[in-house]
Amino acid sequence: MKGTLEKEIMDVLWASKEATVTQVNNLLAEQRAHNTVMTVLDRLHEKGLVCREKRGRAWVYQAAVKPEEIIGHRLGDLLQEGQGVSDALLLAFVDRTERVAPQVLDRLAQLLDSRRRRQK
Asked: Where in the chain is the domain with CATH 1.10.10.10?
C-alpha cells in the first residue's frame, strides 16, 4: 500500500469486516468524493488486498489480508530494494525489539535461520 487513503480504507475494512463504497466513505475520518473511494477500492482489489462481491447494484468489499501481512510486505519490500536498508535502519529495528517477548525473538531467530538455510 502506498497511499494514506489506501491505509485509511483498509483500516475501515478491517474494523467493519465488509462495506460498500458508500459505507467506507461514511466511515473515513474525512469523506472523499465517491469516485475517489471507488477508484482506490478498485486498485486495492487489483492488488489482491481486498475482495469484493456483487450484491444487488453495489460491490461489497472485504479485506483479503490481515494488517500484519501489509506490514510484513512493506518491510520485505524495503529489504528487497536494498536501497535505504542501512545499518541505521536495521539497528533501529533491533532497538525496538527490547520490549518484545523473548519467545517472539526466539521465533524470529528460527525463521531467519530457516530462511538462511533455504538460500544456501
From this structure: 4-63
User: For 43-57, how does the pLDDT look when each residue is reduced to its tens digit (9 = 90+)?
Assistant: 999 999 999 999 999
* 3-state SS class at 52: strand
Amino acid identity, residue 11?
D
44, 9 Cβ separation under 8 angstroms:
yes
Stated pTM of the model: 0.68
CA-CA distances (angstroms) from residue 35 to 6, 31, 38, 39, 43?
14, 11, 5, 6, 12
Predicted confidence at residue 2, as pLDDT, reads: 59
- pLDDT at site 38: 97
In CATH, the architecture of 4-63 is Orthogonal Bundle (1.10)
